[in-house]
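Sharing a chain and its predicted structure for anyone who wants a worked example. Both blocks are below, sequence first, tokens second.
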Amino acid sequence: ENLFDYRREELVGQKVDILMPEASRLMHADFMRDYFRDPRDTQMRNGRDVVGVLRDGEKIAIEVSLSPMETDNGLSVIASVRDVTRRKLAENKLRETETMLREMSDHLPGVVYQYISFGNGKGKYTFISRHVKDLFGVEPEDALKDGAVVEPALHEEDRESVIAAIVGSQRTGQPWVSEFRIRHPDGSIHWVKGAAVPVRPLD
């Protein structure tokens, strides 16, 4: 009643189709037919977001968990439905922000990045611009998987002090600014300036 705005007696005896868009009903029937062939605890996805329809016709994003249950009348399915509209809106907003940031950073010189520190000298990039390949010879996708892949490009005489300065900045929360040498992908040595401002997450 709280989620779909129907009274209980309005739904008892109705097909579940009443709670989904008409365009999704055939796909839902196929999904459930396959589900009864191999019943198990799972989430309903069908390769796309699941949409529910409220009594007034408004559509919302939902998450549906299914669990099989044996009864005297045979196999039944318990469905747990959760409204995830706010989460989906937040995810879409995050994707839009990331797209905008990537488009902006592609037109800026140097490497633009966001890095999360785990507090032990380790961490990971959550965003890094494509220019990391130009300076460090590293694909952005590889840097996102393992932030340490950029370290070999640091000049061997500067590497230890640069990493120590970065770790110190993360620990104290003070801005990091350093000038150091990197070995370019073509083998030449270049002086660069790195800067970052730590931002502690809100509680």
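Comments welcome. The longest helix spans residues 85-105.
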